[in-house]
Amino acid sequence: MGSDPISSTNLLFARELQRRIEQVGSKLQSIAVHPGVARTSIGANRKQLGQYHLGDHLITMILGLVMPLLGQPAAAGALPTMYGATSEDAQGGGFYGPSGFGEMKGPPRAARIKPAGNDIDAAQRLWTISEKLTGVQYRISA
Fold this sequence. Notes:
There is one protein chain. By secondary structure, the chain is mainly alpha-helical. It has five helices and five strands. It has a domain at about 5-35 and about 80-135. The strands form two sheets. It has a three-stranded mixed sheet with strand order 1-4-5. A two-stranded parallel ribbon has the order 2-3. Strand 2 (about 40), helix 2 and strand 3 (about 70-75) form a beta-alpha-beta unit. Helix 1 packs across helix 5.
């Protein structure tokens, strides 16, 4: 499971969706992916948005040194998504990401799911909370 709360939550939701798909016998698949560490400009506008603090200067310098070594090009970060969407080997309920050291870069493969990623009770609670917060009941049919 991802190391940050958003990735962890997305994985739990995707796996709960697959569980519910299987319950109704649908042929749909819910597949979770992560890009690893991709060199993008995703944080480039933080300074202009007024969300750039003193500590960010240090982080920016460190990332400038580390990203070329540990990160991969943005296009390579998209490969796990392409794999999940198009590979006949991708399985519903699966989780895919880069195959290299620490799942930071490399060709896509099945990613490691930490025990929390298999917590069915947490996934069901997340589903219920998501329905309440959005005001939408997520109905799955065959």
